[in-house]
Amino acid sequence: MRLVLRSTLIPLAFFFFGHLSAAFATDIFVSRSSGDDTASIDQASRADPPFASLPRAIESADGDDSIIILDGTFINLDLTIRPPEIPQTNAREEAIWTGRSLRIAAIDRDDAAILGRINVIGCRNITIENLAIRPSATKISFGGLSFSGCNNVTVRSCRVNLQVVSNSNFTFTNCDNVLIEWNILEGSSNDPTSFIFPRPRVGGIEIDSPTYLGPPERDFGIWIRNNTIFGRNFGIEYRQDDATSPSRYDRPCMLENNLIFDTVDVAIDVLDSRNIRLRHNSMLEGFQTDAFELLSIQGCDRVYAYNNLISRSRFAAPARFVNNFESLLFSNLLDGGGGFDAGLQLEIAMMNRIQPANIIPGDFKPRSDSPAIDTAFNPGDLFLFDVRGAQRIQGRAPDMGAIEQ
């Protein structure tokens, strides 16, 4: 399948806005080609010279500082960022951070690459953006970003290629106030047919047991929007531990405008969770067998899925929606191969459009004759942009799925 990934100025606007908003903090520069870890913080803040390593820069950060990566490839990185009260881990490198907020960003994603992983434990107010992340050169079994017990986290405009890695691109465990947007998460580069089977259960974005860690920082406790995910075992997995506990995480959460294709398993899997909206996601078939649906919502409370576009190329159920309480799957375009319902529950078939989606192969936009165009429900609070940065509403009504025609 030919892959078309459109560039957009929207993530760059977020990047520079974030930079200006921290104008009164210190920028600490890092360069693998010209850096020197014996430099002082004053020298590194002027890039004369910058630091050479991320741990040196992070431990020098205070207040609301930013770590700006100028260039270089950080090979075999296994870095844990933690506050001093968190016990030591077994990571190859650790950075003890004591500031109020921390931003790690690259000037140019093409000039700065992380080969390995960054783990963040027990931190607040962390932003990571504009990084390229690939597997470790010597330990290809790990890579990506993981967060545990963190509050107020933003991951933006990163490109992660972890074809042979046995963990998800982004993992969030026991976190709160999380925003994940404008990222490209891939399992291989433009050639999903090159995958080797059987594959481990690895995914794009994994949300595990979100936990109350402070007052609300955003409109949604977990906000996953405008990401492109392909070539993974699953796209987005959202789950909570105890479906019956009254203390289960109940902040409103949103999954919107995500383009997910060529997954081996489920594109979006929501299990034993509550108070979530899923809208304007495009889920397109790749390697699934008939045993897997592209959208699975099970054992949930107050989960509402609408305006999604789900298209399978063969006769099979596009969605599974079972054992849910006060939840709805409505106003979606469901194509189970030739437009058939392929075993959908009757109540789902009656509340959604069951017909061919008519998507342009490789581009994923609706064709001019697609029933996705101008047929979505407009609740009045849609995000302004689709997954490619185009204005969300361009006709008399929004389009179904992640891409506006």
Q: How does this model look, in words?
A:
- The protein is mainly beta and 405 residues long.
- 7% of the residues lie in helices and 35% in strands.
- It contains four helices and 29 strands.
- The chain has helices at residues 10-21, 41-45, 54-60, 346-351, and strands spanning 27-31, 66-82, 93-96, 102-106, 112-121, 124-129, 132-134, 144-148, 151-156, 159-161, 170-173, 176-181, 184-186, 203-208, 222-225, 228-230, 234-239, 253-256, 259-263, 268-271, 274-279, 282-285, 295-298, 301-306, 309-311, 319-322, 328-329, 333-335, 353-354.
- β28 (333-335), α4 (346-351) and β29 (353-354) form a beta-alpha-beta unit.
- The protein is globular, with a radius of gyration of 21 Å.
- The model is unreliable at 189-200 and 338-342 (pLDDT under 50).
Features:
7% helix; 35% strand; 29 strands; globular; 4 helices; 405 residues; 29-stranded parallel beta sheet; mainly beta
Structural class by SSE content = mainly beta
Terminal Cα span: 20 Å
The helical percent reads under 10%
How many helix segments?
4
Q: How would you characterize the largest beta sheet?
A: 29 strands, parallel
Number of strands: 29
Proportion of residues in β-strands: 35-45%
Uncertain runs are 189-200, 338-342
Nearest-integer average pLDDT: 85
Q: What Rg do the Cα atoms give? A: 21 Å
> What spatial form do the alpha-carbon principal axes imply?
globular
